[in-house]
Specification:
By secondary structure, the protein is an all-alpha fold. The chain has helices spanning 7-12, 23-35, 40-44, 49-62, 71-80, 98-110, 119-127, 146-158, 167-175, 194-206, 215-223, 244-255, 263-272, 291-303, 325-331, and strands spanning 281-282, 289-290. The chain has 15 helices and two strands. It has a two-stranded antiparallel ribbon. The radius of gyration is 19 Å and the shape is globular. Bound molecules: geranylgeranyl diphosphate and zinc ion.
Length: 344
């Protein structure tokens, strides 16, 4: 159990050794991912391109290297791939899905190109996915999942069209996914999982319904996610994985409970997941890097204030909107927090 791990255990594992953040390697890694279109990795990620572009842009934005991305080109590609129902698929010619519609709108927000789309059309698409009980399906196959509740609220908040859905019903449904341990799952009765907790808490934060959350019980469950390695896992008895640095820390920020974990140990875990030759961050020390874990590892370091006072300039991430804070400020996005000292 994380809470029983001593500092000495961690020192024995060499976790206190200072490891640098390889910013130049990481920016090169992300830029090359988008340019080397003949690689196996590029071809094999065709089915999630829209989210891949969002992860890449975010990783670069957080490192204050967004200017190295071809934002005009990316935004034009997004605009050109919107489908007649108002949504987006993962790539040109793929069926529309709420997940990729959210990524598309986030990309346009980061690129400052939201005015290039018909927001009402997107809002109608999102509205068409809400069911009578307030939940959301992702697409025509009708799977219900709290990931989609978050995506719907997030997309409409960015587009200033929250009034197009029943927000009260949406947050009531999310509240029904709360479990006895204070955590949340993908549907009522499903096991608590840190990534689903993020979707639920962020959805409630947008929907102004955080009264459904037990701040201390959930804070405790999340703090328990820290493993001996310093990394965080997604549920009891599972391996630590860099992406939970985002899923867990973002909620702790919303709850005002980020001091409940050992931040130095988590920083060290994330830094040890870097590929110090090829760049990028993997899910676990020694594993191959990918852009998903690169983004969420950097997001974790940002929220841990790793870059404060260092030579690297960086942009802070907003824990509810998963966008750079400056973008949220520019768009006037507002979210509810238990303690809103640092976020708008
Ligand atoms: C804009 C940040 C943002 C998100 C959009 C897509 C989405 C909404 C949220 C995804 C939430 C989610 C459920 C992520 C899954 C993360 C993950 C590592 C799942 C692995 O689950 P298991 O069961 O692994 O394979 P564990 O770690 O439990 O062993
Ligand atoms: Zn992961």
């Amino acid at each position: 159990m994380a809470s029983l791990t001593t500092a000495t255990d961690r020192e024995d594992e060499g976790l206190t050794k200072a490891i640098p953040f390889y910013k130049d390697l990481h920016t090169k890694y992300v830029v090359q991912l988008g340019e080397n279109t003949e690689t196996y990795e590029y071809q094999a990620s065709e089915h999630l391109r829209m989210s891949g572009v969002y992860w890449s842009l975010m990783a670069m934005e957080l490192m204050n290297a967004g200017d190295l991305m071809k934002k005009e080109e990316l935004a034009a590609w997004v605009v050109s791939t919107q489908q007649v129902d108002g949504g987006w698929g993962a790539n040109r010619g793929h069926d529309t899905h709420l997940l990729y519609t959210t990524s598309a709108v986030q990309i346009l927000a980061i690129c400052g190109q939201l005015d290039k789309i018909d927001a009402d059309k997107v809002a109608s698409y999102v509205r068409s996915l809400q069911l009578e009980d307030g939940s959301f399906v992702g697409d025509k196959w009708m799977e219900v999942d709290t990931r989609f509740s978050y995506c719907a609220l997030l997309t409409l908040a960015i587009l200033k069209r929250l009034d197009r859905i029943d927000v009260k019903k949406a947050t009531d449904f999310v509240s029904q996914c709360k479990n006895f341990d204070g955590g949340f799952g993908c549907v009522p009765g499903a096991e608590s999982h840190a990534a689903q907790c993020f979707c639920c808490i962020a959805a409630l934060s947008i929907g102004n319904a955080l009264h459904h959350v037990d701040q201390d019980q959930l804070g405790w469950w999340l703090a328990e996610r820290q493993c001996d390695s310093g990394g965080l896992n997604g549920r009891p008895e599972k391996q630590a994985d860099v992406c939970y640095s985002w899923w867990v820390l973002s909620i702790l920020e919303i709850l005002g409970r980020s001091d409940w974990i050992d931040k130095e140990a988590l920083k060290s875990f994330i830094l040890r997941c870097q590929d110090e030759e090829g760049g990028g961050i993997g899910d676990h020390p020694g594993n191959m890097s990918d852009v998903f874990h690169t983004y969420f590892g950097i997001a974790g370091l940002c929220m841990l204030d790793f870059f404060d006072g260092k030579e690297h300039e960086f942009n802070q991430i907003h824990p509810t909107f998963a966008l750079p804070e400056y973008v949220c400020k520019d768009l006037g996005l507002k979210a509810q927090f238990f303690q809103s000292v640092r976020y708008p």
